């Protein structure tokens, strides 16, 4: 059962999105636990990945990835949306897609996709802490939009999430030891997969209703988020090819899959707005593309000695 779950993990995630659509009562029941699922995902990723893998050289790459994701990407997006004259309601969500850090589940998904999970763990933890400062800059300077929450408050909130998870993982590692954790590696990965599935179902709460009442609007946004996700992945891959194919594929994955759920806490968004609907629509590529592109990720993420 464990081997089956790990072998078909990406397809189980893709199916979870549709379970959330077809079983709205289940999605509503799981939605209150979204914050817990996110913290649990990061915790299991920290248990599964050897921390020593994020060495000094990796931290230099993490810093460069941070500049790419949180500073250069928003500037590029701002230029593109204005050059294409996108509808005003789409400008904000597209630019902000490029201003938030990667999804917290990136290290867990990287394990399934054979990407550099240690690098993505460093990126997720570091950039989640740094993003309140950049989010204070992007809405105000690029979009002329005031921030709804003080950057210091956001820093404390995200610091509590990431720092608390880090402390829990450190205590667990000290208690069990690396050898015992390695023997339980498959079980830890399955627990992470369960959290991903619960999150995928819960985040779909309310989307089925929009599909019935305003299908055209939802489907147009779904097409947009797929295009944005794939374009960002391609740009990230190309930009980091000098660092090697595995690093480039990992950064490409992180570039396309961003933690859009942060918007709910960060920005003063109105219910039913294009931006709020964009957050829901963006979950489709986040959960479907890993299954569809798994062979591509596996080939790009293969270590040189496996070639």
Along the chain, the helix and strand elements come as HHHHHHHHHHHHHHHHH
Proportion of helical residues: over 70%
Overall 3D shape: globular
Q: Tell me about the largest β-sheet.
A: none
SS summary, helix count: 17
Give structural notes.
It is built from 17 helices and no strands. The chain is mostly helical and 307 residues long. α8 (117-142) runs antiparallel to α9. The longest helix is centred in the middle third of the chain and has 33 residues, at 151-183. The mean pLDDT is 80.
Describe the structure concisely:
It contains 17 helices and no strands.
Secondary-structure topology with pairs:
Layout (H helix, E strand, L loop, with lengths): L1 H6 L1 H14 L1 H7 L3 H15 L7 H28 L4 H10 L8 H8 L3 H26 L8 H33 L1 H18 L4 H7 L1 H25 L5 H12 L5 H5 L7 H8 L1 H10 L1 H7 L7
Descriptive keywords:
307 residues, 0% strand, 78% helix
